[in-house]
Amino acid sequence: MTAEARRGSIIEAVYGIGTVRPEQSYTVKLGISATIERLYVREGDKVTAGALLVRFQDIPAFRSPFEGVITEVLFSEGETAFPQTPVLTVTSVDRRYLEVVLEQEGALRVRPGQKCRFGLESLRGTRLSGQVKSIYPSRDQFLVRIQPDALPPEILPGMTADVIIEVSRKDDALLIPLAGVHSGQVTIVRNGRRQKVPVEIGSVDGEWAEVLTGEIESGDPIVLPATGD
């Protein structure tokens, strides 16, 4: 079995799992204990900027600072909220980004401006695109912020995506099947005869590898290992 060497583009990528995050999130908290007099919203409600959210005894009512959705309501009317305890949360769902967790090896290769592709389980078969905006440490891991080119409205904060970050790309590279490389050599077929050719491999993209040096030409048949049934 053989596969031909060919000219083409090769992409090196870093892979990760991303989580959809909202650009804005607002949580009502108090600095003192207070009883809830009136709740104006429930979980799932859509609110406009300035909409009433909650009123406490002897405290001015809280209003939403932006348009969004109520994603959390943790108290009922008549209950007492204690200091620094979340009461409810408003989340912006129209402005979202992806947060990707990477290990150190992958993080070292990621730079702002790099292109990426990602897919979500809820949109099987659909590939979306975006761009790396920043990378920064958080505790013992590294986070990459990706700004999508576009996100369908049904994609909500908290959903996860498989992310491919393109860290390098070479066009018109000489490519050979990676399966045909053994101990720095490939076996090619020329004039009906097999011969071993030393090669130096560069970038690898899935099943294909870039040839940096080696007497191989586009169209040369590369012998592949036999596979069992």
Structure description:
- With 229 residues, the chain is mainly beta.
- Helix content is 2%, strand content 57%.
- It contains one helix and 20 strands.
- A six-stranded antiparallel beta barrel has the order 2-11-14-13-12-15. A four-stranded antiparallel beta sheet has the order 3-10-8-5, with no helix packed on it.
- The radius of gyration is 27 Å and the shape is rod-shaped.
- The model has no long low-confidence stretch (mean pLDDT 92).
Record the SSE blueprint.
Blueprint: E1 2-4, E2 6-22, E3 25-28, E4 34-39, E5 46-47, E6 52-56, E7 59-63, E8 68-73, E9 80-81, E10 88-91, E11 96-102, H1 104-107, E12 115-120, E13 128-138, E14 141-148, E15 160-177, E16 185-190, E17 193-198, E18 200-205, E19 208-213, E20 221-223
Antiparallel strand pairs: 1-20, 2-11, 2-15, 3-10, 4-6, 4-9, 5-8, 6-7, 8-10, 11-14, 12-13, 12-15, 13-14, 15-19, 16-17, 18-19
Q: What integer value in Å does the Rg equal? A: 27 Å
Strand portion, in percent? Answer: over 45%
Number of H- or I-type helical stretches:
1
CATH class of the largest domain: Mainly Beta
Give the integer mean of the pLDDT values: 92
Q: What's the architecture of the largest domain in CATH terms? A: Beta Barrel
N-to-C SSE string, H for helix and E for strand: EEEEEEEEEEEHEEEEEEEEE
Provide the CATH superfamily of the largest domain.
Efflux pump adaptor protein, beta barrel domain
Q: Which stretches are poorly predicted, pLDDT < 50 over at least 5 residues?
A: none
Q: How many individual β-strands? A: 20
